[in-house]
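Most newcomers find our protein records easier to grasp once they have seen one. A record pairs a protein's sequence with a compact description of its fold. An example says more than a description, so a record of this kind follows:
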Amino acid sequence: MGKRSRAFRLGTRLFWACARVVSAFPASAQQTITLAGSGSSLARPLLEVWARKFHDQRPAIQVEYIATSSSEGIAEVSRLAGDFAIGEISLTEKQRSNAGAPLAQIPVAVFSIVPVY
């Protein structure tokens, strides 16, 4: 099994574990949680829809996203200045194994850019 599929499985397990922890507490018993992310401007419209729909289902959780750049999003998450980043570039081995903040890469969407003549 390749490194990518193991990383994907690990990232998927991590995502669902976090989702279970958040959903284990009733919304009335917890304060508002804000997840902060940054990265690609290409993903911003999609993430805004997802965040709104998620907030409709879980009112105690807000998802905020700032469109900067893929590399800036990765840098912010590496510095623990954000909870997640979205980008078009793959993580390097150094970024994935960073001792201070090891990162997991989870594919969430596929975008295509088509030149028109």
The mean pLDDT is 80. The longest helix spans residues 3-24.
